[in-house]
Amino acid sequence: MRIAVCGGPYGNPYALQAFVDDARARGAERLFCLGDLGGFGADVDALWPILTDAGVECIAGNYDVAIARGDTDCGCGYRDPKDNAYAQIVYDHTLATTSRDFAAWMGTLPTEHREMIGGLDVHMVHGSTLTLNDFWWESLPDDRHRLRAEASGADVILCTHSGLPWRRRIGDTLAVNVGVLGKPANDGRREVWYAVLDIEDGKAEAELIPLGYDWQAQARSMRDAGLPEIFVETVETGWWTTCLEVLPPAERSRGRYHLYRSTLPSGFRPADDGWGETTPQALEGDRPVVPLFGSPYFPSRLWLYTNFHCNLACDYCAVASSPKAAPRTLPAATFRTLVDEAVEAGFTELYITGGEPFLHPDIVELLDYAGSQLPTVAMTNAMLLHGRRADGLGALAGRKLTVQTSLDGATAHVHDLHRGPGSWTRTLDGIRHLIDLGLPPRVALTETSDNTAEIPAVAALLTELGLPADHFAVRPLLRRGFSDTGVEIGEDSSIPELTVTADGLHWHPVGADTATSPDMHLAPTGTPLETGKQLVTERFFTARLTDGSLPRPVHCAI
Question: Which Pfam families does the annotation name (predicted)?
């Protein structure tokens, strides 16, 4: 037997009629609806004749139970105040506009259905086998899937409520979340989803069906009813704009929007790397939801490590670079591909670092290419700016290129303590050379117990060289790589800054060395940047939801 099963029509008669027509065209002998007739769209009453005329067999969801009883809220199971506030808007509309006859009919529906079909025990529920409004997410750990399967013991379990379709085998049980008809699945598609099951001779196969329907008409009906545009936008774009906090990290990372704007603390300013604030593009406009990427919590700056070997062996290098380090050089063709990909993925800044980037044989050509595409910062110790590798550097003065170097003391003694004998003098020569080339560098000082007292003198020295005051910043010493002291930094204590090396993708440039920071490695070489953004988003919310806090920024750029 072939059956078709839908979830959550959510006041969307256009999708419900399309479900009936499509399921019949596919040869479905019986049609089922797993509840939540209201909940997003404007016209719940229009569902009733479609359900009855097509003989759709229904169970009640939490929404239907609440409407039938005249409850004050939908009982959806949200815990976040903002999620509940948006849910309340639609519930109040649904309660006010649903006829009492239809509401009474909802009150006659069972909250689950179980029968033998094709030799199999099939159990249909709304939320899960545990509770009516349980969110049975695909990303739940295996033991929590088993708990729900074992609570039923059926051969096939069909559910909805979460709004996101999936299917999986749990031991001998086939579990299917059939999705919902009332709104898209937060996948950027305007189609909605339902499931077709073929059950014969003790075997079951399920297919998830994307369903096209007249979404323009649904959007018009919602506007005509005065529902907020934030709801209509989901119908028109396929991306959820409400009820985000209920999503687990894996599911949330797949959407376009991840945070309510109100989640951003008023005292938390856009990412300031010491050179002045920029406005994250995620915060533009007035939409109440924003993506994580491009917000203060995930700056749209991409770090590219050209290599890891260095002419210096600084004793606090966060990525363990030195003359003896394996070069792990990024090929020029790979670099250019990454720059193109960064533009496509919405990055707005590039930071080029190492090791010492000027040990890369093609560094000037790479900086030229990067600076032609995006504002680019090149990190260097400024000691190798002469000779073959640096030929043509002066011609880059017209590009969107900033050179940044480090000076850790006003005297050679203090600077050279950590960076090696003679490095202070050669760095100053490099700074002067950059100024002469028309590329006045930004200069950062890594603060230690040895140089704190010299910070004013370093600022005065740079002023004497002709650098503006805003070209100097102080950054903290971080405990990574060679450094066994300094500020602790990890996924649970820092905002992410996606970083690419020859070894793949990393959470933060400070954790880009796989040997000393394996915990910050995200994905292997060749992983697309868009995938990296999703991985970062998932890890961000996994860390955040552990204790409910949001991490603070630690910027390697300063």
Answer: Metallophos_2, Radical_SAM
Nearest-angstrom CA–CA distance, 370 and 206 = 48
Q: CB-based burial of residue 486 (10 Å sphere; 0-12 exposed, 13-18 middle, 19+ buried)?
A: middle
Sheet holding 499-501, edge to edge: 472-476, 442-447, 401-406, 376-379, 349-353, 301-305, 499-501, 504-506, 521-523
Q: Write out the two tokens for 228.
A: 């907020």
Q: How confident is the model at residue 551 (pLDDT cuts 50, 70, 90)?
A: low
Q: Give the distance, in angstroms, between the CA of residue 361 and the centroid of all CA atoms in the same chain.
A: 35
pTM: 0.90
CA 420-426-432 angle, 5° bins: 145
CA–CA distance, 12 with 183 (Å, rounded to integer): 8
End-to-end CA distance of the chain: 65
Pairing between β-strand 499-501 and β-strand 504-506 as defined by DSSP bridges = antiparallel
Report whether 65 contacts 122 (CB < 8 A): no
Q: Alpha helices of 139-214 — where are they, by DSSP H?
A: 142-152
How many CB atoms are located within 10 Å of the residue 324 CB? 9
CA distance 254 to 244: 12
Q: Which residues contact 66 (CB under 8 A, 6 or more apart)?
A: 73, 74, 75, 91
Ranges of H-type helices in 254-395: 332-344, 363-373
CA-to-CA dists, residue 388 to 58, 335, 393, 536, angstroms: 76, 20, 10, 38
Instruction: Read off the tokens for 232.
Output: 């209509």
List the one residue out of 289, 445, 441 whose CA is nearest residue 380.
441
Sign for the pseudo-dihedral over CA of 57, 61, 63, 69: positive
Are the CB atoms for 5 and 195 separated by under 8 Å?
A: yes
| Tokens representing residue 129 in the block | 């086998």
What is the dihedral sign for C-alpha 158, 534, 237, 133? positive
Rg (CA), the chain: 29
3-state secondary structure of 303: strand
Backbone angles phi and psi of 484, in degrees to 5? -105, 10
Flag whether pLDDT at 373 surpasses 70: yes
Indicate the residue type of 75: G
Backbone angles phi, psi at 463, to 5 degrees: -65, -40
Q: Residues 49-62: pLDDT tens digits?
A: 999 999 999 999 99
- Measured CA distances, 378 to 123, 389, 401, 513 (Å): 60, 14, 7, 19
Rounded to an integer, what distance in angstroms lies between the CA atom of residue 505 and that of residue 216?
40
Q: Can you tell me the distance from the alpha carbon of 370 to that of 375, in angstroms, rounded to the nearest whole number? A: 8
Residue 501: beta bridge partners?
Answer: 504
**Tokens of residue 421, six digits:** 């004998």
Cite the beta strand spans of 299-363 per DSSP E. 301-305, 349-353
What residue has token string 């067999």? 57
**Residues facing residue 58 across a β-bridge:** 33
Mean pLDDT of 17-41: 97
pLDDT digits (tens, 9 = 90+) for 398-437: 889 999 999 999 999 999 999 999 999 999 999 999 999 9
Q: How far apart are CA 213 and CA 234, in angstroms?
A: 14
